Amino acid sequence: MTEFISVLFALDDSREMIRHYFDSIQSYCDEMNLEWFSERDFRKYRDRRFKNSGSETVYGIAADERNIYRLSEVETILEHSKPPYREFFTLQYLHCRRPGEVLLLESSDVRLEDDIVWYHILKQQRGEDNREFVKLRSDTERDVLEELTDGKQEQLFDVTPNEVREELRRIQQEHSLPQLKLKDFRHTRVSHLKTVGWDDLKIRDEYTKHKHLSTLQDKYMAYVPEEIIEEDLWSVISTETIDGDDSPEGD
Fold it and tell me: Which among 101, 136, 172, 175 could bridge 119 via Cys, Cβ 3.0 to 4.6 Å?
């Protein structure tokens, strides 16, 4: 069976077939109480496919279509979005957050003296705290948050989810960007961190906080068809972008 799966991974357009066979055979083996192929081996072959593929259409086992931005596309969104949407997208990308978690941010959640930001998690687990914190890692983050919290006592973003989506859609249409969803900033950042060399545990522990590592690996990580380094992930967000002129002449 292991050889059979490895053959599937050797095929260029086999993602849908792999998932179909994996799910079908696994269901049969579960019903018959058989062990046929460990998830660890499955991810090993999946990782090999990502590393060896030069195709821009490989986005992950769980993705049916493209679900991440190129770094230059993130930069375009941050450069041309208007406040406070620009800061919203910046925090989504920097901290791998869901849209609703950014909308719930209050000034008291930003602890610049401790270099952390607390996010309220929508999917509260019984008996567990429904907050997660992200550690600030750069002066860029601090500059963005200092400006965002200046003079505000409560909620940081006085916008609705639909207004945020409309702003993202405007930029996508005006600059011919892929029509990805708001949540895909989270997928994008995870995949970019993986590409520049972060290991899965570090991404999980510092950002996504998934209970099961396999959730991060199978649903969030995608192949990034470009060469980037970690410094690029921070240079895409500059104080010049945050403070820049929003007029057409400035753009």
Answer: 101
CB atoms within 10 A of CB 83: 12
**What is the distance between the alpha carbons of residues 8 and 15, in angstroms, rounded to a whole number?**
8
With tokens 């499955």, the residue in question is: 42
Convert the pLDDT of each residue in 110-160 to its tens digit: 999 999 999 988 665 444 558 889 999 888 889 999 999 998 888 999 999
DSSP 209: -
The whole-angstrom separation of Cα 150 and Cα 243 is: 14
Residue 77's closest CA among 221, 179, 162? 179
* Beta carbons of 232 and 70 less than 8 angstroms apart: no
Query: What's the half-sphere exposure (Cβ side, CA atoms, 13 Å) at 178?
Result: 16
Sheet harboring 116-120: ordered strands across? 110-111, 116-120, 131-135
Residues 140, 141, 143, 145, Cα dihedral to 10°: 160
Name the maximum alpha-carbon separation found in the chain.
Answer: 67
Return the percent helix, strand and coil in the chain, to nearest 5: 55, 5, 40
Return the bridge partners of 119, or none: 132
CA dist list (Å): 180 to 68, 73, 76, 172: 7, 11, 14, 8
